[in-house]
Amino acid sequence: MQIKKIKKFKYEDLENLFASVNWKSAENPKKLVKAFKYASHVISVWENNILIGIIRSMDDNCWSANIDCLVVHKDFQNKGYGKLLLTELLKELENIEYINVCPDDKSMEKFYLSFGFNIVEGFYLQKINSL
Question: Structure pTM?
């Protein structure tokens, strides 16, 4: 296993990872490559030169960060890779005042709570532009 802090990926690496968990974004690997290139922090985990997990943040490096795209290949889930990725990213973000995450899956709530995240009352708004 190898942890990398890189922002340059091959289309196939991201496409295979995101397709393994049935994320629609796998259909546009060119956009995925661009998204990770411009992210503030990116941490990935590799097994035998195969991308098996990735996490990124978008942040201002002092006040606020949003964690996005914690993805672990379906064949490597429940083996600690998600925990490893989030732990490494939180080290990178330790000087940031507010760290936000909005997981797509309600079942991930307990996972994030175990890292000290709290549920915030209110609402979340999102606008989706057609791709």
Answer: 0.92
